[in-house]
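Worked example (supplementary).
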Amino acid sequence: MIENRPGLNLLAHATLILGVCIVALPVWVAFVASTHGPTDFMSGTIPMWPGPHLVENYSQMLGAGVSTSGTPPVGTMMFNSLIMALSIAIGKIAISILSAFAVVYFRFPFRGLAFWCIFVTLMLPVEVRIVPTFQVVADLGLLNSYAGLSIPLIASATATFLFRQVFLTIPDELTEAARIDGAGPMKFFRDILLPLSRTNIAALFVILFIYGWNQYLWPLLITTSSDYYTIVAGIKRMADAVDGLPQWHLVMATAMLAMLPPVAVVVGMQRLFVKGLVETEK
Amino acid sequence: MASITLDNLGKVYPGGTRAVGGVNIDIADGEFIVLVGPSGCGKSTLLRMVAGLESISEGEVRIGDRVVNKVEPADRDIAMVFQNYALYPHMSVRQNLAYGLKNRKTPKDEIEKRVAQASEILQIGPFLDRKPAALSGGQRQRVAMGRAIVREPAAFLFDEPLSNLDAKLRVAMRLEIKELQKRLRTTSLYVTHDQLEAMTLADRLVVLNGGQVEQIGTPLDVYRRPASAFVASFIGSPAMNLISASAVPHLPGTAHAGQIGIRPEDLSVTPDGPIAMNVLAVEELGAQRLVHGKTGGERITITLPSDAPLSDSMNLSFRPDALHLFHKDSGKRMD
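After joint prediction of all chains, the assembly is encoded as:
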């Protein structure tokens, strides 16, 4: 908008600030809760300002964990989540960029069919195929392992489709120039395609890392040993204290800690992320 | 350096569309050949067949003594300059120049030497560490040529390299390409739809129409003795006047002629000339003026000096030997 009216500016800012408040309020409540003692949240009035137990709560979670709910220390769960999120993100990118490369640049029989088969898997997210997938993973002996946590989630039609679109925007002349310059297919992939899709890879990495980090149902299903609990599934287990009250201050401290890695990824890769989503010129 | 031979070359696309057919061209070592024709005439397809980017359905391409029909583009010892430059956007100019050599396992100091040489010839030394996005169109064009030069190939292939540049730069670069080719003596095949570019650059012109060769010859040859009515109308600016032979029935020797052509500069204004023209419009070009008019039902253009007197109707005359006669069925030249 090019109009310059102070009233409108004020309105725009008010709307934005209101939106931020609505989004941030639950986070604030979680943070406040994580700084109070065990009984404060049971008293009926929810405190709105931080209490004095911040260091104590967080050091307990990072060190010992909550023994009553059977979850390991937060550090272990964070590490498991990190491994899972990274394997999913990196695995998805590696597989989908290669399949997009095959679909776009190679003329092989049934190429169209291959692409459509990949595309159809969009209709089959984990939730739909969870029972057969569980059976397969169990038969392969992958329960309670990092491979079992990540491999069934790695195949990705969305990412393949995204890379296909990226590759289609790269001019044919560039491919031809590379051919004349003596670059074979894999060399072309490494020297030209990878660097040119760098920003798209970064954007996808951010999205997929968060996707992997936030996985809940799948890890809940296939991990029975506490050594392989992920943090998102672990929070749920903590809140489900069977005999006794849930220790909200500790649950919230864990939730705050669980938020940090995705935030770090988004903040750290923000510039590339935005570039990857808006950049069109190659 | 090498000669290039196109032997009965043809291209049929799957589905049966014929893009090019029966093309025979012998290109001598060091020769500058320009393929010219309107869009869709198959000139780019022809070039891409020589480059190896398009498969060959009929005939043979020989570079030197070697048949290269099935040889990969990289192994044909050619370098190509593309219309949109096709520089690798993520590499610096230096890396762009060196990439092809690096892939061929050229020793490092040799690469450096050749890049330095090419950048001196093309005066791109100051930009060597910039990315293509930071260069102007003309500079990018130079880098694209540099990428061809460093390879020291047997032949250069140019695919309309100047059509993305503005008019002034195009003229300057045209001259530079000409000088460069004279200096390096590398066999060159150049595609353009611009007949002026074709005339000025070529040692020999190949005029294409509908996938067929209409005429091969030196620019002056083609200009003076166009082999068909198509060539006559395509080469030369302003275009040759082509008049239906039936409009001038009293002319001798025109029994089988379909069209009669005469260059605008071969017509002169004389008070008792046989052609009476009504002037429709005048275009001032500075050194000369183009006068467009009508005689009978035919449009006609003449070039006059800029100080020549103008009037609404003029009588025109011509020397009989300036006429070009084209056959009524084939459109071919009749003498």
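Two points are worth noting when inspecting this output. Chain B has a mean pLDDT of 89. The two ends of chain B are 38 Å apart (CA to CA).
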